[in-house]
């Protein structure tokens, strides 16, 4: 599956910052030059400056290309998917949380993100496994099948009570695609500013009135040409299945460069399971947001359990009262 377009998305901030600085310098240089010119000044300085500007644009393009390349975490699809495990901090692990990387993340960056600490603050009994499923694996077209065979299934055999998956940006997209292709295998998902496709597709969905009204056609099997539309066909199913969508939690920053896709995605989810935090497209937002999400999951479960116990108590009390009434009857 070819998702090379993510190159431009993931590193946009660095590139835009560079372009902004270049533009400001160019404007200042031209203003100074014009201010110092006399009416009879030769046009030669302008010609020389134009040539320098053209050369500088070439250098700028080379620099931006190098910058984008540097933002890509490399991987070797000819080898097994690399993983790193951060074991549970309390007792025997009964939960597994598999974390998928963004396009710029390798195992070291995932470990340095602090997200494992956030998970353990809320779920000390969880094993955290980082899977270095980089862009190179996705390009091969079988990344998620390999993730299932090489990582998920061997780990599941350890007997975890629950298996969760969390993913940032490209990894959030991968998490959605995994659940779409292998439904029912995950007990829950945490999506951290997931990449949700190109602008043209998002515009098409928006013009249709949203994902519920959008006619995405029949699923195409997540091919190289269809995977983006297949992701949204899956999201459309979530919008019509509140039980299935209840397993999904979303978090992103209010300044995240991918945030414009979120208003199309959020209606398919439960409103209380969407977290918007201050900040951009970075682990400094996602790491604390992960802790917030896990605490909310526990609070939701505690509330549901309390309500269930209350119903059973009320039912039991009603049965006892009925028996007493029968006993008193003549």
UniProtKB/TrEMBL annotation:
InterPro entries per the UniProt record, alphabetical: AB_hydrolase_fold, Esterase-like
A Pfam family per the record: Esterase
Superkingdom in the source lineage: Bacteria
Keywords annotated in UniProt: Hydrolase
Region (Disordered): 304-330
GO molecular function: hydrolase activity
Identification of the protein by name: Alpha/beta hydrolase
Lineage of the species this protein comes from: Bacteria, Pseudomonadati, Pseudomonadota, Gammaproteobacteria, Lysobacterales
């Amino acid at each position: 599956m070819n998702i090379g377009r993510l190159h431009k998305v993931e590193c946009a901030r660095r590139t835009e910052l560079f372009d902004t600085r270049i533009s400001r310098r160019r404007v200042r240089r031209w203003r100074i030059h014009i201010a110092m010119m006399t009416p009879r000044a030769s046009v030669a300085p302008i010609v020389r400056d134009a040539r320098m500007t053209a050369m500088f644009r070439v250098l700028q393009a080379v620099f931006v290309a190098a910058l984008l390349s540097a933002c890509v975490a490399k991987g070797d699809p000819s080898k097994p998917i690399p993983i790193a495990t951060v074991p549970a901090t309390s007792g025997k692990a009964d939960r597994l949380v598999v974390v998928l990387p963004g396009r710029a993340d390798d195992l070291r960056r995932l470990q340095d993100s602090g997200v494992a600490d956030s998970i353990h603050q809320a779920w000390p009994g969880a094993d955290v496994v980082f899977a270095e499923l980089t862009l190179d694996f996705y390009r091969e077209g079988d990344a998620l099948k390999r993730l299932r065979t090489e990582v998920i299934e061997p780990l599941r055999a350890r007997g975890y009570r629950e298996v969760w998956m969390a993913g940032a940006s490209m990894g959030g997209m991968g998490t959605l695609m995994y659940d779409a292709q292998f439904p029912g295998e995950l007990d829950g998902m945490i999506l951290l500013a997931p990449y949700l496709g190109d602008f043209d597709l998002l515009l098409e969905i928006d013009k249709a009135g949203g994902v519920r009204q959008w006619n995405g056609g029949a699923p195409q099997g997540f091919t190289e040409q269809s995977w983006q539309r297949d992701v949204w066909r899956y999201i459309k199913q979530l919008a019509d299945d509140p039980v299935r969508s209840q397993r999904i939690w979303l978090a992103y920053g209010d300044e995240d460069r991918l945030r414009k896709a979120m208003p199309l995605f959020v209606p398919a989810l439960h409103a209380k399971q969407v977290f918007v935090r201050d900040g951009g497209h970075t682990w400094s937002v996602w790491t604390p947001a992960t802790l917030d999400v896990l605490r909310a999951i526990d609070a939701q479960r505690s509330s549901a359990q309390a309500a269930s116990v209350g119903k059973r108590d009320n039912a039991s009390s009603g049965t006892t009262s009925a028996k007493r009434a029968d006993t008193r009857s003549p």
